[in-house]
Design brief:
The complex is a heterodimer of chains A (348) and B (223). Chain A has 348 residues and is α+β, with helices and mostly antiparallel strands. The longest helix of chain A is centred in the middle third of the chain and has 53 residues. The model of chain A has no long low-confidence stretch (mean pLDDT 89). Chain A is elongated. In chain A, strands 1, 2, 3, 4 and 5 form a 5-stranded mixed β-sheet that branches. In chain A, strands 7-9-10-12-11 form a 5-stranded mixed β-sheet, with helices on one face. Chain B is globular. In chain B, strand 4, helix 5 and strand 5 form a beta-alpha-beta unit. The mean pLDDT of chain B is 88. In chain B, 49% of the residues lie in helices and 10% in strands. Chain B is of the alpha/beta class and 223 residues long. Chain B has a 5-stranded parallel β-sheet with strand order 2-1-3-4-5, with helices on both faces. The two termini of chain B are 20 Å apart. The longest helix of chain B is centred in the last third of the chain and has 23 residues. In chain B, helix 7 runs antiparallel to helix 10 and helix 8 packs antiparallel against helix 9. The chains are: A alpha+beta (348), B alpha/beta (223). At the A-B interface, helix 5 and helix 6 of A face strand 5 and helix 6 of B.
């Protein structure tokens, strides 16, 4: 579904998002006039005007005059409630400032007929974008489906061969196939974020899931160390499809950004009535990491090949499990910083 | 047994070994493409049946309490139950026999209307899950299928009795006491026969009750 920014990018007139009211965006043909900008920053009246617009009838919208003489018209496109704004319509609505504004900003004048056509144009193009996006997701999903089937064949064949005669090469194939599965899980959530809204039904042992991940990502020099507080093997209620993404992303990230030959430490500890998992590594950082690292598409400054989606997806999964992944950076020595990601779960 | 105590199903502790789980279980795989996993499951000792699809012609197999666990694919199955393919079939299975543990798998991105596929399911297997991972999950699912609380909950759903209602609590007490008394067991069956009012619910309801009784007696004997 097109976002407000996408809808805004095709609008000939200034446009405002009524679902998340802020400063209107300028249009392709008509920019937001200087007067409009001045009023928006000066008075709260604009916000009130947009809030009132939200209540307007969407079936047969008509232009509504703002307190400063410009006009706005509300409509709905692809689930977004938006309004074209900052224009002076003709025939005039009848406000006392209208003739003055029309003279000052001739570029903002628009006939009601053209206004209706503009709205139809925005709706039409947005729906086209929506159908293209849907087709892309569908094709992506079909492709992923086929690739997963191939990956299954590789993984299961390697497992069957291992049963007969195990070798390091076969184990490596299995591990690589597992890594691919992990990446596919992340892509699947990116394509369908509603998966992170599904309820949690499975009882899983946190240590086991992290341990499985450690086996997949373990380096030849055994740099990944997993430690659980003595006798502490908590079980949590989780979604078995999405939960493994958390250890996958945290361990993969720690490995990727770790300085050479430095250990990756994972510990599972009791913290009050919660189970706290921390994954830490020593890295050379240009600047400390903060919460922005969990935003979509944000990458570490030293990142060369990351997609910027791993931590975003992991945080979505953490939210699904009523928790939050946090990051902390502490200087370890002159060159290295200790980066620790922590996440706590309620256990039973 | 204490005279005044009201017994609950959870008072009965049952432990089934892996071998027993395998021996007792029957699995059905519904997938338009025959998965190789069938052979791996058979090799591990599981009884497995395979159906390419469920249609009006073979839906009887779901109305009989034959299976403990179903592995269900989303795509190209269940079209005779509705437009939502695997989801339509899943809804049908859960309505007919709620005790059946259903694991689903698909890697197609489902839209928000189809997200019910993951909500109704008891567990999810990745389309590219390995053999060991699949067997482990299936065993876990079968353990759930053979757990007394799960069987009892399904029995109450089939009988349309609210879980934790006074009626449910009375029947639980009657069931536990019935494991030591044929007369009480008879009374339990008679009460249930009044609420299981169609052929299908009678068939499934009594099969669930028999399963619960057999597991309960096994626990009493400590075997």
């Amino acid at each position: 579904m097109p976002s407000f920014d996408e809808i805004s990018s095709i609008s000939p007139l200034p446009i405002v998002n009524l679902n998340n009211i802020g400063k209107p965006n300028g249009g392709l043909s008509v920019q937001l006039s200087k007067s409009c900008l001045k009023y928006f920053h000066k008075e709260n009246e604009c916000i009130k005007h947009y809030e009132n617009l939200k209540k307007n009838n969407l079936e047969s919208p008509t232009p509504v005059q703002c307190p400063f003489g410009f006009a706005s018209i509300v409509f709905k496109v692809c689930n977004e409630k938006v309004a074209l704004t900052g224009f002076v319509p003709y025939p005039r609505l009848g406000g006392k400032d209208e003739p003055k504004l029309a003279k000052q900003h001739p570029e903002c004048k628009i006939s009601i007929d053209k206004l209706t056509k503009t709205i139809s144009f925005i709706k039409d193009v947005s729906h086209r974008i929506e159908s293209i996006e849907t087709a892309v997701i569908k094709n992506q999903s079909m492709a992923l489906h086929e690739i997963r089937k191939l990956n299954r064949t590789i993984k299961q064949t390697a497992e069957r061969l291992t049963q007969k005669n195990s070798s390091p090469e076969l184990l490596q194939i299995q591990k690589t196939s597992e890594l691919m599965s992990n990446q596919f899980d992340i892509i699947e959530i990116l394509a369908n974020e509603t998966l992170t809204q599904i309820e949690r039904k499975s009882n899983i042992e946190v240590y086991r899931i992290f341990d499985k991940c450690v086996h997949i990502y373990q380096t030849p020099d055994q740099r990944i160390k997993l430690h659980s507080q003595s006798g502490f093997f908590p079980k949590i209620t989780a979604n078995d499809k999405t939960f493994p993404i958390i250890p996958t992303v945290l361990i993969e990230n720690a490995l990727k950004y770790s300085a050479p030959k430095q250990p990756i430490k994972i510990s599972i500890d009791r913290d009050d009535n919660k189970c706290m998992v921390s994954v830490s590594n020593l890295a050379e950082l240009e600047k400390n990491l903060d919460d922005s690292i969990f935003s979509k598409g944000v990458r570490n400054s030293t990142d060369t090949d990351g997609s910027g989606y791993g931590l975003y997806v992991a945080q979505l999964v953490a939210n699904q499990h009523n928790t939050l992944i946090q990051v902390k950076c502490i200087p370890a020595n002159d060159k290295l910083t200790k980066v620790t990601f922590t996440v706590s779960f309620e256990y039973f | 047994m204490e005279f005044f105590k009201k017994y609950k199903v959870e008072d009965i502790k049952i432990h089934l070994t892996r071998e027993e789980i395998i021996r007792r279980s029957r699995i059905l795989i519904i997938d338009d493409e025959r998965p190789d996993l069938i052979d791996d499951l058979k090799k591990a000792g599981f009884a497995v049946d395979y159906e390419q699809d469920i249609t009006k012609e073979n839906m009887k197999i779901l109305e009989n309490p034959l299976y403990d666990l179903i592995l269900l694919d989303y795509g190209n199955v269940g079209k005779s139950f509705g437009q939502d393919q695997g989801l339509s079939l899943l809804r049908f299975i859960k309505r007919v026999n709620p005790a059946l543990v259903v694991y689903t798998y698909t890697s197609k991105a489902l839209d928000s209307n189809q997200a019910d596929f993951y909500r109704l399911t008891d567990g999810v297997l990745s389309k590219d899950a390995g053999i060991a991972e699949s067997l482990e999950k299936i065993e876990e699912g079968l353990r759930r299928a053979h757990s007394l609380p799960n069987i009892w909950k399904a029995l109450m759903q089939v009988a349309d009795i609210k879980i934790n209602s006074e009626e449910d609590k009375d029947l639980q007490d009657l069931y536990v006491r019935g494991l030591n008394s044929k007369k009480k067991l008879q009374r339990l069956k008679s009460r249930l026969s009044h609420v299981l009012n169609s052929d299908v619910t009678q068939k499934i309801g009594f099969a669930l009750l028999e399963k619960a009784i057999e597991l309960g007696i096994k626990s009493f004997l400590g075997a």
